[in-house]
Write a structure and sequence with these properties.
seven-stranded parallel β-sheet, five-stranded mixed β-sheet, 7 helices, 12 strands, binds NADP nicotinamide-adenine-dinucleotide phosphate
Length: 256
């Protein structure tokens, strides 16, 4: 084993397979474990579309120790690692965590570095930065966020839409819209589109009198998320316990 030892949780998933490929391609990282509840015994490298790597998919927590676990499973996945986790660093891209999941991550962050990112792509981190600047400069414009994802996505709106709402200076006040009203309610509105194989699309509309400013990002491949996750894993190993953000990895000022 050379370099930091990495475990991937959710290794058989759409994103997990790309993360496995990214870790295997990184000369300074070693894949030591590939966890999922199903698919056991299958070589993780083969599953990721490459050559066999000698690491078979195993049950969560059933594998050699790692320096960092990249979590691309679903809410509740990390808890299944049990005592195996020890003081390993966590890089989690899982969205839709409930309060108990957030509290669990906070508790681990007292023992180890924990980096959570609703979106691992560099472009979205830059978009969040632009949204913060644009909404600060145009405080009277109405903010509408539209996100689109594939038909299998479980959480709505996306964690990235919530991240962009926070960058716009507030929590979303309206999710979707139907029926009769006196007009637009104050605050940020978020609309979720689901269909087909859409990897991830986010638009932020700033609507004023006589003008609209449109900011947006389109992910065309999960490899953009995998690259960010690998970069974050490399960065987080060896840091003191605590919570970290992708923006710090990327050297950006605002949240990513
Ligand atoms: N941060 C980002 O940039 C980003 C980008 C895209 C997606 N995401 C998030 O990444 C996550 C995965 O998305 P996906 O589209 O790849 O989903 P997916 O295809 O459904 O994959 C989920 C993976 O997690 C495993 N898993 C599910 N529940 C588990 C549990 N309790 N314990 C251990 N493993 C478990 C699944 O295998 P088994 O069911 O066999 O266990 C599978 O390997 C979602 O939370 C999604 O929102 C984040």
């Amino acid at each position: 084993v050379s370099g930091a030892r990495v475990a991937v949780l959710g290794a058989t998933g759409r994103l997990g397979r790309r993360v496995v490929a990214g870790v295997l391609a990184a000369p300074d990282l070693s894949l030591v474990a590939a966890f999922a509840r199903g698919g056991r015994g299958v070589d993780a490298g083969l599953l990721a579309g490459g050559a066999p790597c000698g690491v078979a998919v195993s049950a969560p927590g059933d594998g050699p120790a790692a320096d960092v676990v990249i979590d691309v499973s679903l809410p509740g996945g990390l808890q299944e690692l049990g005592g195996w986790l020890g003081v390993a660093a966590i890089v989690s891209g899982v969205t839709g965590q409930d309060a108990a999941g957030v509290a669990w991550l906070d508790a681990h962050a007292t023992r180890a570095p924990v980096l959570v990112a609703a979106n691992f792509s560099l472009g979205v981190a830059v978009l969040a930065d632009l949204v913060a600047r644009a909404t600060a400069a145009l405080p009277d414009h109405d903010v509408e966020i539209i996100e689109a994802h594939h038909r299998h996505k479980r959480d709505a709106p996306s964690g990235t839409a919530l991240l962009l709402a926070a960058a716009a200076g507030g929590a979303p006040m309206t999710f979707g819209r139907s029926g009769h009203s006196e007009g637009r309610a104050a605050g940020i509105a978020v609309h979720a589109v689901r269909g087909g194989d859409i990897v991830g699309e986010h638009q932020v509309w700033l609507c004023g009198e006589g003008e609209r400013l449109l900011l947006g990002h389109t992910a065309t491949s999960r490899d953009t998320f995998a690259a960010g996750a690998v970069r974050a894993a490399r960065w987080v190993v060896g840091r003191p316990p605590g919570r970290y953000q992708l923006a710090q990895v990327l050297g950006l000022s605002t949240q990513g």
